[in-house]
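Appendix B. Chain record.
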Amino acid sequence: MTVDYVDAGWAVDQGSLSGKVAGGDVAPPVVAGVDYERILHAREEPQNWLTYYGAYNGQRYSPLDQINTENVKRMVPAWVFQAGTTGLIAGASTYSFEAAPIVVDGVMFLSGWDGWVWALNAKTGVEIWRYKHAVPFDVSLCCGNVNRGVAVAQGKVFFVTANARVLALDATTGKRVWDRTYGDVRAGESATVAPLVVKNMVIVGSSGGEFGVRGHLDAFDLETGEHQWRCYTVPKPGEPGAETWPADGEAWARGGANCWLTGTFDPETNLLYVGTGNPAPDFDGAVREGDNLFTDSIIAVDVDSGQIRWHYQCTPHDLWDYDSIAECILFEQDGRKLLGHFDKNGYFFVLDRTNGERVRITPFVDRITWGAITREGQVTAKVYPDKEGEPVHFYPGPAGAKEWTHAAYSPKTGLFYVPVQDTGATATRRRREFKESIPYWGAGVQVDIEDMAGAISAFDATGEEKWRWRNELPMCASVLATGGDLVFAGEPSGEFNAYDARTGEVLWQFQCGSGHHSSPTTYMVDGRQYIAVPVGWGGWAEGFLPGMLGAGHGSALLVFALPEPV
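Structure tokens predicted for this chain:
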């Protein structure tokens, strides 16, 4: 029997129901002047946060220094935006606030779960407009009802929706300009990534590796939404890398390797650096013998053609759900163009970003029992779910020694700042026949709720740890570094902390009322620096901190600044 897929239709215009102040429904046309050249030189206008990581290099560093080690203790809340928990699938155990606020000349653009996008006055927090996309109730979501942010350019705001669509909105009104589908929700595909604008394209990646889909990157024309190219991250038979999959059957067609985090970009190499996700099924490797390229890899993609130019696989034949989706931080050392990547598997990889050559590999978490990687890159698996029904315990757990949440790099100190999770898990292999849109894990998994730890750790480019701030709970939120010699990071228990970037000393703390699992950003309006952090605990909490599933979930954006002069 054939069942036709019924579209969810269009949502009620939530902007008309938001009670905004009269005349406040049109934003100034600040995004009209944002183009590739401005994003390329984003750090030359530090008052703005123009793109997901703040700049193409992925450093999550701002040179703003009005707030610094001397005065951060005086920082106070400036305003709060309450997003609420409305939405068909925004249950307390599913949604999470995971975005990175974008700011352009005093206007903030922010995304949330369930297809929400807001435009806010970045100085006062007053809502300007809101958009709500209609997301079908039955969309298959592996790891929470989340969205990681928007991109802006040429008068438009770009974002993806859980039902695998990419949209362009008018940045002044929030009205839809174009809307394109780039994934099949019936097969288990979805989308959570913050888009990246490069040249005349908006680039997005797919989600859904836990449902046995074939991952891909897609590029669309900024103006028209016309599809430009697709890069599949699992090769089909006959393509380079296909020899790393079984020759018979269709394991490759449901191989995973989704790119569900935003990549970084080097205009000089013209390469987009993207991390890929786990193979499918996650824990049952017997049905996909081989290294399974290009899963758990860093891939360098020619941004004009969508072709993979080189790759480096961090965990061949992954049996632990160790996606390599984490950011690829671009930096230079001794005249060499390098890339830094803190992988779920517990190792810090430094590669030459021109050719993918391995420069250095060092562990960055205390407990690694799944296996070992030598400095020469030799991978040896030690503990993994091998026998049906037999539980196996390993470190790190499937959320990794660092989850998707981002590290930061300060060119001022030369240090990387990393949110560390030291948590184990037990996996019991359970072979499952592949069925479209049904979870394809290959195991039952239980993440530890005791004997865990976390840290914010500072490393130099050689992998030497310079300082560590220890926490009883894993650190599950992104880090922000600033020119004021400060590092900002939030805790699962709600505290938002400012650290001395050179020593790790906590200089300021504020209890936000809900755990952190998002990406703070910083900006300046009318000469005043602000620190913005979305707060809202939830999402895939059972995967990275199940002992706090019952914690307050929240859904607010908190913004801090120094007190205004009297």
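Further analysis of this model is presented in Appendix C.
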